[in-house]
Amino acid sequence: MFVFSRFTRYFEEVARLGSIRKASERLNVSASAIDRQILRVEEELGVALFERLPTGLRPTAAGELLLNSTRQWTREFERLRVQISDLLGLRRGHVRVAIIDALSKGFVPRQIQALRAEFPAITFELKVRDNVDVLASVADGDVDFGLMLNPQSSKDIAVRSHREIYLGFVVPPGHNLAMRGSCRFSQCLNHAMVVPAEPLALCEQVRALEATSSIRMTVAAASDNIQMMKSLIIDGVGIGVLSLLDVMEEVRAGELAFVTITDAILKPLTLALCVAQARQLSAAANLFLARIEEGLSQVEL
């Protein structure tokens, strides 16, 4: 890596944390070494990169410009390294993927494990983001591709493949609804509910179900975190409305049961594999993308 990359690591970490001391602890580099690098570049550029405030360091206008440039340089340099490796015929590379939290267990980790078993020199960077942030990461070129729900149409984004994901009641295995394969939303009338809160994509569907069925749910708890909702359901606080994608690992393990909701108003979610229209993927990223596409077509959702 070029010497310039040392400064970019220091500079970006200080900008992110707002403190040379915190950056020093994070990078395991002395604070004086980081300070020297920043002062040297400020002297070369003839401009301050940070405002020294009582609360910490904040990038100046020039610092923000340099921060954007260094991030772009870092991405471009990584692509160059991958392209050179491809020219040399090396089965290695680094793949960046943005995913929603529901995919942080099970399907995606298994695909990574399987690919690394064949090509152990391929490494991965997984960014777990909110739905909107996955789309932004793909569009901005921060990742090679992303997996998200119901992507908004965009001229900059292409959907390579997709799967429909159904919604249903999520209950403990011994619950009286657990034996049903499907039922209508009205079956929640006599049950305490664990419901999704904004910004989860499920909120709109749950509100539509409540409005069209004229049912007022008995809400025991609401959360904007899927893992918290599952924990509340497992502990018996109430039953929930989630997608099968959210609970597929727990259903497979026998920790939860899933009952499809059949109301006509309820439309399935779309799990989409998205790439930037103009992005040229490395051989490693293309290989992993193909495995994900194949896996999506086979996995039971």
Q: Please tell me how large the radius of gyration is.
A: 23 Å
Report the count of strand segments: 13
Share of residues in strands: 15-25%
Mean pLDDT level: 88
Strands of the biggest beta sheet: in what spatial order?
8-12-7-11-9-10
The main pleated sheet reads as: 6 strands, mixed
Helix content: 40-55%
Structural class: alpha/beta
Unreliable spans: none
Distance between the termini: 43 Å
Q: What is the molecular shape?
A: globular
Order of helices and strands: HHHEEHEHEHEEEEEHEHEHEEH
> Tally the helices: what do you get?
10
What does this structure look like?
With 301 residues, the protein is an alpha/beta fold. The protein is 44% helix and 24% strand. The chain contains ten helices and 13 strands. It has a six-stranded mixed β-sheet, with helices on both faces. A five-stranded mixed β-sheet has the order 4-3-5-13-6, with helices on both faces. The longest helix is centred in the N-terminal third of the chain and has 27 residues, at 61-87.
Descriptive key words:
alpha/beta
SSE arrangement:
Layout: H1 4-17, H2 20-27, H3 31-45, E1 50-53, E2 56-59, H4 61-87, E3 93-99, H5 107-118, E4 122-128, H6 131-139, E5 145-149, E6 157-165, E7 167-171, E8 182-183, E9 192-196, H7 202-213, E10 218-223, H8 226-234, E11 239-243, H9 244-252, E12 257-261, E13 269-276, H10 283-298
Parallel strand pairs: 3-4, 3-5, 8-12, 9-10, 9-11
Antiparallel strand pairs: 1-2, 5-13, 6-13, 7-11, 7-12
Helix pairs in contact: 1-2, 1-4, 5-10
Task: Describe what is shown at a glance.
By secondary structure, this protein is α/β, with parallel strands linked by helices. Helices cover 44% and strands 24% of the residues.
